[in-house]
Amino acid sequence: MPARELRVDAALAGQRLDQALAALTPELGLRGRRRLIARNAVLVGGRAASAARRLRPGELITLRDTAAEGEHTASRPADRPRLLSRQGEYCFLYKPAGLHSAALAGGGGSSLEAALPALLASLPDGGAARLLQRLDYGTSGIVCAALTPEAALAFRRAERAGRCEKRYLALLRGVLAAPTTVRAALDTADRRQSRLLASTDDSRRWTEFLPLHVWEGAANLPPGPAEGSGPINGPTGPSGQVGLTLAACRIRCGARHQIRAHAAALGHPLWGDGLYGSASAEPPAGAAAPATVFFLHHGALLLPGAACVLPPSWPLPEAQAGAVRKWLESPPQYDILRRGHRAGPDPRP
């Protein structure tokens, strides 16, 4: 999308940024405008701002040129969406970080859903594919699509029965000392941020966290994080440890932002997650929108009769990369939800 500018006049003064942006992007709906703002593609006075920011007369709204960024992403084959495999009536696809899962109403903008016709062009029944999952904009990894309504129903039945296992890798702030499970229910009415219902357990939407490796102190960080988001600063865990944890995360039924919200509830939000890692969900007027550069990857999806495994492309040391592969490829644990409350995830593989 080419760069555009708009000076705030008396008619726009006092409006929220996501509402006033319609004057610059009449082709987008509210959801599309909020996507642009979340990507920090919209500047007010030269700075990124939140969707709820109230505009003042004379301020300059700038919509940055994002075409070059898209070309940069497209030039790296590993970061492009692609078909990983077809198994029966399921297709397993790769969604890179920095791409939306769902298409906007009307078909505008880039997304994995919008790319389905091209990705599945070689399949005679590819035109019938429907996504069964959605990953956050900043999350990479596997997304499953069904080629028939019957396959979609079977997927949902497997989720309800606890026989659909989704394995993620995450980098968490602080030192997660032991395996743990978060069972707290989530209020997902607010599309921007899910809210933890601390006093209510969810019967199916649990997140299991298993520490695979801990780096203590900024000097020992792996190459990617050390170069990507600056040093670790300040204690983040209940006991005040400073560090970074490579964690295996397992869910069966998912809710919006489930792993991000549950990790924050532990006191170990995803490293770089400005939405759930900050004290306030909404930045003050004039402040930049929270950063969305975090490390979360959906690396394995296990179903009765079908499975897909894809380790993250993070530059992990060989020992940690090996631990990741071993965990992703380990046998499924389908019956955990039937066994009731547990002290934590399964022992370290």
Automatic annotation (TrEMBL):
GO terms for molecular function: catalytic activity, acting on RNA; pseudouridine synthase activity; RNA binding. Residues 90-265 form the Pseudouridine synthase RsuA/RluA-like domain. One of its GO terms (biological process) is enzyme-directed rRNA pseudouridine synthesis. InterPro entries: PsdUridine_synth_cat_dom_sf (IPR020103), PsdUridine_synth_RsuA/RluA (IPR006145), RluA_PseudoU_synthase (IPR050188), S4_RNA-bd_sf (IPR036986). Belongs to the pseudouridine synthase RluA family. Signal peptide: none annotated. The lineage of its organism: Bacteria, Pseudomonadati, Thermodesulfobacteriota, Desulfovibrionia, Desulfovibrionales. This is RNA pseudouridine synthase. Keywords: Isomerase, RNA-binding. The keyword Cytoplasm does not apply. It comes from Desulfovibrio porci. SUPFAM superfamilies: Pseudouridine synthase.
